[in-house]
Structures are given as C-alpha cells and as structure tokens.
Write a sequence for this structure.
C-alpha cells in the first residue's frame, strides 16, 4: 500500500465521525413555505372551502385496537364535519432526539404533541408555527388558565401551541413499603423533615431506597428545580432580556442539603443514583423505591409501561415551605409544523379543537373518549390541573366520574390540595441547558460524600449565566 | 491526444466506468454528508428555515463550553485506559491460543462470542452487572473473596474504568481473530532457527512473533485509537455522561448538542474538530512509523 493511499484511508476513517452526524442533517433543500413537509402542496390562501390535507400524530398502534378504532372513528367524524379537510393519522410520538431530523426530513406530522418542558426552546428555535390568529378565533380563547397557556407563548404573547393537559409535580409513594416500615399510607409526609424521616424508616425496614431522585437527561435539574420551588427558591429572576440565573439561591442549597443528608447521613437513597424518567418509574413499579418526585400523571405510564400493582400506589402533594414556595407544573401541548401553510394551520387548529379540546369542553366527547380508554384498559381519572379553570375541570371530571378506573382514593391527598398550591412555570430562559447543568450537581451530591454544595452551585450559576448572556 | 488514447486502450476508461456506480454511491452517502457537515458548522440552523451564516461562532461556542475540555480529557482517559488494557489483551490471548495444540477453534469461538452480542444488549447487561448494591452481580462474586462492594458506574472515579472493562470484553474478540490469522503467516522455519539458536518461548515471541506481526500491530493500534476517540455507545447507554460528567466523551457531547439541545451548528463544529484532529494524528502516526511498516 502506498503512503498516499494509507493517508487517504486514515483520513477517510477519521472523517466517518462527521458523516454520522451530517447524514441526519443532509436535507439539502429546506422545505419551502406551503409544502407542509408532508408532500402536500398547501394552497397558501387559506380559504375555508379549499381542499387541504394534514397529518396528525399519536394514532394508537395496531396492538391497541380499541383506542386505535376510537381514534379513527374521531377522524371520520371530523372529516364528515369538515369535508374540505382530509386527515392522515400517523403513529408519530414525540421524541426530542428525532424531532428536528423528522421536521427537516418532512416526516413530522402537521400537528404533534410534546411536553411543556420543550415548548420554550422550540419557540426560540423557530420550530413551531405561530397560530395566534387561529387560536384567537376559538370560542374559549380567553378562558385558558394564563399560567398554563404561558408555556406556549413567546415574550410578545404570540401563541405557538395549545395546551391540552396539565399536571402538577407530586410525591409518589409506595403504600406497601409504607406499611412495611410501620407508616400509615393514608397519612403521607407533609413536611420535608417528614419526607426524610419516612425515607429513613422505609430504607431501614425494606433495604430499598426510601427516597430516590432522577439525575440524568436533564431530569436531575428538572426535579431539583421542583424541589427548589417547593422550598421557596427560584432558578431565574427577572423577565425578558433582564433574566438572570439564580441557581445558587437558598432554596436550591436547602434542597441539595436535604438530598445530601438522606444520601450520606441516613443512607436512605439506595445504590442507584443515575435514574432518568423511565428507569425511576421502572424501579418504583418494581418496589425498589419508597418515594420519588414526578408529574402527577405518571400513574398512567406506571400502568401501561410498568404494570404497577395499583394497591401499592399513593400520591400526595409536595410539602411547600418558605414564603414564596410553589409547585412546578407540566403537561402536554399540541403544536403545528413551522412550514405549514395558512390553510394547513387553520385545519390543524380545527383538528386540535375537535380532537383534544372537545374532551375538556363537551360532555359527549368527554364520555366517548373515556369509554374508549376504559375499553382499552387504559387508566382514566389520574388527577390533572385545569387547562381553563378549576370549576371547568370539576365539571369535566364529573362527566366521566362513573368510568374512572384508577385508585382515586389513594390519590386524594394530592387531588384535594393541588389546586391550593401556587403554580410556578419553568425557568423562562434556557431551561433545558439549566437542567443539564444541574444534572451534574445532583449527581455530585449523590455520589461524592465531600461534594461542596456552595462551590458546585456557584460554578453552575456562572455557566448558566454565560449561556443566558450569550442569548 | 495520444496520451488519452493510450489511457483508453490501456483500460482506463473501462476501469472508470466500472468504478462509477461505487464512486457515485460513496460520494452521495459519505463525502456529501461530510461536506454538508463542514457547511453546517459555519451556520446556525433549525433545519427548517433558511440557515444563517455565523462564521466561526459555533467553533468559539464549542471551545468556550466548560464541558469541552472535560470531554476531551475523558476521551483521552478512555483511549489511554483502552490502550493499556484493550491493546495487549487480544495479543496475549492470540499468542497463547496459537500455542494450543487442541481446542483452538473452541477458544477462538469463545473469544469472539462477545462480538456477536449486539452492543446495546451487551452494555445494558453490563449495566445490570454493575449494580452497586451488595446484591449486584459483580459485587456478589467479588464478595465471595472478601472484596467490595464497589460503586462501579455510580462513582465518578470508577465509572470510566468500568466502561473500559466492558469495552475491552466486547471488542477484544475481533482483534484476537486478526492476530490469529496474522500468526498463521509467521514462517515456521524462523521458530526452528530460533530454537536451534537456543531461544526459549519468551525470546521466540519477542524476536520472531512480534517483529513478524508489526504491520498488523501498527494498523490495529491506529484503528483502536480512532475507534476509542469516537467512543459513544458505552457512555451513552451506561452512564449518559455521569456521574458528575466523568464519562462525557467528545462524541457524546456532539450527540447532546445535536439531539438534546437542537444545536446542529455546535454539533457539526465539534465533529469537524474531531475529524481534523484524527486526520492529522493519523497522518503523523503513519509518517512516524513509516520505517517500521512491513508493507
């Protein structure tokens, strides 16, 4: 082999690192406005009667025949009511790692669901269509709970998506492990001192983690932010261009100190400190975790993904301590592709109104949806936060009360108190970067007995401040 | 003109025509994405709207990121440990196996078995084995001889060595087979001559086997360095960069930029830097070792 050939071979091998990434972004022609990304040529006009085709996400897979049929029946119903709109259902489900590539590749549906946590970053990156005009035509446009709608708005108040379900963060606990530790499962902890005390008792009695904490894939920062809010702190202060990072606030220091005590003084947090959302749910459903913090809707996933024993499940509100304490909220929002034409945007908002919002606003639609869920053995009745207002939520809950199939009694400590807790939105700027930065801080406290909490927070705060300043 | 005719008559044109499909496929699927990555590294893009040219901003952003040097240090650490353990192990195994009189096939198959296990399955299995509790698989086994329990991947200091251990187990088999094949090419009369000169086993390995294998050894060394610089699967699946960023590698950082934070400019900028570094390193390596090469 000649020297030149050898060099070329080596260079080619080295360059493979590049091709791996670039292959994902090699859509050389940016989708044109009006294309819609689905091969559908938009009309660009937006006339009410012009034919338009949109694709929609979250068609249940064929293995879930009852919910799939119910979904397809709703599609048919919609098309009858809107003869100029054709719906192409897609099984697409939100995945942050593939979203941008699918958007660029034209395989992302016109409308798609995604979590609150990603809303602001997607708006900043221009990955959502501005649907302010379309949303304002909806009869309930002014009725949205402002703190919920906020997650789908930019600084100027423009609307980029519609919130369809909301939850508050709560404390999930294993009732069976509570009993094993001699604790009353109907009297969950009401202060963070009690959480620590109960965690210690559970770890002592069961040999498992009394309390566990997520720490990977930005979840460490997400849950630490939740704890911080519950202790009266905030990760960022100010609004608009004046936002400053305050990761080294007193609430976060207290939160990390609490984790340090449970981990190193009480040895009450088990042996695994690299949990993310999926793995902590698995561990909890398997009876390896006594308590953990997560969204109040997690029970749905614990049933469908992890086959949890319903008798073991308990849910309560997070103890709020401190003058400005509040609870972090989350939920699902539905957005529209940024390259959708005017007609596609209008059709998409009509679909969102019909498919998602009518369940919340019309008894008949709520019942039909609930019956389909129950027929598919999917959980119904997990506590939620109001998209509009508390009264409206109570009313829509009442419509389907007879069909509820989750152990609601065991969730009452949460349901009875959550509406009294002030809802605090996520940090407004660079939330995901902030969470990623805090992942390492949480991991440090949980894996290094000598971790210097103040120094860790100072460094993290300085790093996030640089990111915020960079814009 | 005469030169062109000579080239055509000499088979140049038919060679080119035969090569053309391969060249086109290779250009489209390999070189074009590489070119695109270089372009993207100079742009800010969300992959939908028109990209904005930002000059070298992405490179500045990547180099200013506190995690950049952490990821470089971690990658070098992984590469160093992988060379220290992963490079000699297959060679020793191959030499020992080649000396066996019987069961060579069985041992080759056993050595190659981990390579057959899909990497994701292997990593997830090892994550399970690395359970840090006293009842974890490895901790239980080590407990029988009074060792442990160890934190394995749950501690910043032991996480990277744990990843290297798994990677060595997973990848040694393929290199063992390469060495075994190369060993069959070592002339038997060299060993006979060495024996006549009174050489023992160690002298035969040092003075006959290793010099005869040096061409293969040089190639496997650079291939291993290039592969370990691009380590991704193990830290991604086993620790996701934790604890405390102790296993964040350059490729994991590239992945995070692109698929966790949607910053394709930064991701491609770091990819370009990595590719340039590996290209330069490879060229320097071959230049320095030219005199040792057997080909």
């Amino acid at each position: 082999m000649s020297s030149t050939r050898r060099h070329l071979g080596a260079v080619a091998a080295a360059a493979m690192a590049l091709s791996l990434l670039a292959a994902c972004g090699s859509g050389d022609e940016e989708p044109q406005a009006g294309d819609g990304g689905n091969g559908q040529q938009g009309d660009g006009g937006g006339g009410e009667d012009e034919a338009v085709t949109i694709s929609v996400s979250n068609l249940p897979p064929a293995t879930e025949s009852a919910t799939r049929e119910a979904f397809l029946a709703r599609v048919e119903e919609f098309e009858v009511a809107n003869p100029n709109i054709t719906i192409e259902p897609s099984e697409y489900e939100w995945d942050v790692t593939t979203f941008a590539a699918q958007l660029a590749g034209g395989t992302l549906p016109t409308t798609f669901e995604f979590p609150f946590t990603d809303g602001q970053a997607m708006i900043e990156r221009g990955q959502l269509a501005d649907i302010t005009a379309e949303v304002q035509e909806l009869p309930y446009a002014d009725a949205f709970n402002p703190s919920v709608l906020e997650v789908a708005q930019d600084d100027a108040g423009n609307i980029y998506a519609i919130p369809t379900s909301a939850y508050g963060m709560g404390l999930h606990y294993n009732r069976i492990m509570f009993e094993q530790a001699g604790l009353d499962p109907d009297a969950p902890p009401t202060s963070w001192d009690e959480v620590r005390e109960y965690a210690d008792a559970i770890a002592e009695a069961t040999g498992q983690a009394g309390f566990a904490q997520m720490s990977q894939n930005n979840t460490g920062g997400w849950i630490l932010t939740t704890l911080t809010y519950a202790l009266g702190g905030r990760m960022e202060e100010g609004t608009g261009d004046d936002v400053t990072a305050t990761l080294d606030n007193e609430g976060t220091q207290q939160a990390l100190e609490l984790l340090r005590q449970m981990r190193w003084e009480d040895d009450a947090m088990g042996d695994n400190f690299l949990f993310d959302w999926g793995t902590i749910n698995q561990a909890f459903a398997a009876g390896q975790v006594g308590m953990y913090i997560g969204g109040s809707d997690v029970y749905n996933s614990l049933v469908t993904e992890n086959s949890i024993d319903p008798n073991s499940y308990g849910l309560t509100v997070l103890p709020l301590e401190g003058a400005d304490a509040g609870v972090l909220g989350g939920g699902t929002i539905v957005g529209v592709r940024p390259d959708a034409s005017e007609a596609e945007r209008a059709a998409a908002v009509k679909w969102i109104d019909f498919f998602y919002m009518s369940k919340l606003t019309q008894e008949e639609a709520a019942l039909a949806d609930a019956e389909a869920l129950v027929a598919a053995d999917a959980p119904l009745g997990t506590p939620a936060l109001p998209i509009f207002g508390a009264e409206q939520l109570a009313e829509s809950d009442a419509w389907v009360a007879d069909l509820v199939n989750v152990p609601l009694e065991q969730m009452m400590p949460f349901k009875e108190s959550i509406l009294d807790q002030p809802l605090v939105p996520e940090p407004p700027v660079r939330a995901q970067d902030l969470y990623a930065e805090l992942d390492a801080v949480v991991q440090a406290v949980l894996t290094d007995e000598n971790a210097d909490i103040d120094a860790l927070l100072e460094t993290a705060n300085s790093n996030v401040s640089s990111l915020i300043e960079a814009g | 003109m005469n030169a062109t005719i000579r080239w055509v008559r000499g088979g140049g044109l038919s060679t080119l025509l035969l090569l053309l499909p391969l060249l086109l496929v290779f250009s489209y699927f390999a070189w074009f994405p590489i070119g695109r990555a270089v372009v993207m590294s100079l742009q800010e893009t969300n992959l939908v709207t028109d990209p904005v040219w930002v000059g070298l901003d992405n490179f500045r952003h990547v180099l200013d990121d506190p995690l950049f040097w952490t990821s470089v240090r971690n990658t070098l650490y992984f590469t160093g440990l992988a060379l220290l353990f992963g490079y000699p192990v297959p060679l020793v195994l191959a030499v020992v196996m080649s000396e066996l009189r019987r069961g060579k096939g069985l041992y080759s198959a056993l050595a190659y078995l981990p390579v057959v296990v899909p990497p994701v399955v292997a990593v997830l299995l090892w994550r399970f084995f690395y359970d840090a509790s006293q009842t974890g698989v490895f901790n239980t086994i080590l407990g029988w001889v009074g060792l442990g329990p160890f934190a394995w991947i749950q501690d910043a200091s032991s996480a990277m060595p744990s990843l290297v251990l798994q990677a060595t187990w997973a990848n040694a088999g393929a290199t063992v087979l390469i060495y075994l094949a190369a060993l069959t090419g070592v002339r038997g009369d060299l060993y006979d001559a060495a024996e006549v000169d009174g050489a023992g086993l160690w002298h035969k390995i040092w003075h006959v086997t290793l010099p005869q294998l040096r061409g293969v050894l040089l190639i496997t060394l650079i291939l291993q360095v290039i592969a370990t610089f691009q380590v991704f699967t193990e830290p991604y699946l086993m620790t996701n960069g934790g604890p405390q960023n102790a296993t964040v590698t350059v490729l994991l950082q590239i992945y995070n930029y692109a698929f966790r934070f949607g910053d394709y400019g930064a991701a491609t900028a770091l990819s370009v830097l990595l590719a340039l570094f590996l290209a330069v390193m490879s060229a320097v390596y071959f230049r320095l070792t030219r005199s040792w090469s057997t080909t």
